[in-house]
Amino acid sequence: MAYLTLQIDFNIYICVSKITREMAVQFTRIAVKIGSNVLARKDGTLDVTRMSALVDQVAELRKAGVEVILISSGAVASGRSEIKPSKKLDSVEQRQLFSAVGQAKLINRYYELFREHGIPVGQVLTTKESFGTRRHYLNQRNCMMVMLENGVIPIVNENDTISVTELTEKSGFGRGGMLTKTTIARKVADEGITVIIANGKKDHILVDLLQHPAETVCTRFIPAEGGVSSVKKWIAHSEGFAKGELHLNEQAVKVLKGQKAVSLLPVGVVRIEGEFEKDDIVKIIDHRGRQIGVGRIGFDSAEARALQGKHGQKPMVHYDYLYLD
């Protein structure tokens, strides 16, 4: 089953999996990421007209047999038009206030717009921590699968009311520039998923991308053949939860980057940093100090240090739980 990720932030992302012949596309499941620039007017408030147009397009895809997961920004813009702070707030407090008010308004607006098409929707609020462990990741994934199986469109939104760390980073460095988008897009494409970045303010952009891909302006990332396992997809995006680092010698790096699928053995590890438990995520660092991947460690930090550099031991990171950049 092929998958596609499309971004319309000024762009939208879509993640798709095979479609109907009538629409002349190759996907049946897509994840559409609608960025804040698409849904916000110049004054920072919610652009309901644009939102309605995008819902119409999603409904058209849905009626053509495409499963859609909608990842939507817009809670802050939605809340900004509803409330005027009684005192001066810092940027994080503003985002928390506006998103708390705006999330309720945003999901209600989606509910009303999709109801006009006879399509039920459900809200999935998430945070970075929701992907911190395999169990949490699977719980969230299973929730959305159940929704899709029952004809419900999941509408996913980051819970800005409690994601204080992310809010601080966004306030200081902006909300995901093009470099960030392309870096993520390349990683997703390496996992066997088609990724498209397109202008979300262009009329009929979602339908055009699937019906007329050759004539529609966009940036397309071609998926790697074969893809990777579900576990490796989770590991690939778990760098932010890494509890430690495994530093390798030059020979170990050459072996890992060779043609054969191999596990990371203790003999190639020259230094271990951090304190971690078995099955935690660790970064893989080459002999020049550059990160070359992430993996799920098979030992706790004390056991790993006792084994580092030794021959004839079990893998420190098994190939099935190793993701190389």
Chart the SSEs and their pairings.
Layout: E1 3-8, E2 12-15, E3 29-34, H1 36-39, H2 48-63, E4 67-72, H3 75-80, H4 91-115, E5 121-126, H5 134-149, E6 153-158, H6 164-173, H7 178-190, E7 193-197, H8 205-211, E8 219-221, H9 230-236, E9 244-248, H10 250-256, E10 269-274, E11 281-285, E12 291-296, H11 301-307, E13 322-324
Parallel strand pairs: 1-3, 1-7, 3-4, 4-6, 5-6, 9-11
Antiparallel strand pairs: 1-2, 2-3, 7-8, 9-10, 11-12, 12-13
Keywords summarizing the entry:
325 residues; alpha/beta; eight-stranded mixed beta sheet; five-stranded mixed beta sheet; 11 helices; 13 strands; 36% helix; globular
Structure commentary:
The chain is built from eleven helices and 13 strands. With 325 residues, the protein is α/β, with parallel strands linked by helices. Strands 1, 2, 3, 4, 5, 6, 7 and 8 form an eight-stranded mixed β-sheet that branches. It has a five-stranded mixed β-sheet with strand order 10-9-11-12-13, sandwiched between helices.
Give a summary of the structure in a few sentences.
By secondary structure, the chain is α/β, with parallel strands linked by helices. The protein contains 11 helices and 13 strands.
Assembly state here? Answer: single chain
User: How is the main sheet built?
Assistant: 8 strands, mixed
Provide the β-strand percentage band.
15-25%
Can you tell me the overall shape? globular
**Strand/helix succession:** EEEHHEHHEHEHHEHEHEHEEEHE
How many helices? The count is 11
Structural class: alpha/beta
* Helical content band: 25-40%
Rg on CA atoms, Å: 22 Å
Report the average pLDDT across residues: 85
How far apart the termini lie comes to 24 Å
By DSSP, the count of extended strands is: 13
Return residue spans where pLDDT drops below 50 for at least 5 consecutive residues: 16-25, 167-174
